[in-house]
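User: Structure please.
Assistant: Input sequence and predicted structure:
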Amino acid sequence: MPLLVDTGILYALADRTDAWHQKSTRYLRSVRQRLLAPVSILAEVCYLLRDRIGEQAELAFVTSIAAGEVAVEDLKASDWTRVAELMAQYDGIGMVDASVIAIAERLKIDTLATTDRRHFTMVRPAHVERLTLVP
């Protein structure tokens, strides 16, 4: 089963000054799962990389996707319905985080690599009591 990833974890891997960098890097080196990124997080990751680190960091990320180092999961029509439900149900959950949850539910993934403890601890996914957040 792939390891579902959120924006923060991918950003932390690239930014050596990020508080989550070492913890994230260590964790991802210890697992052999393929990284799976919801398509909805890609623009957010690219924006943060370009804005905070520079054009080369953004290019390196896009290159890693093109090389298949990070798999990309598209949103289905049913995911969009679930995204809207989650946004209506949970104050503060935006489209990106809700889409991560919707994909986790559809694929029956119970572990999420993320740095966002605030949003993902409040949501109760339909398929498990709560997601296991790593690292």
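The CA atoms of residues 4 and 19 lie 20 Å apart.
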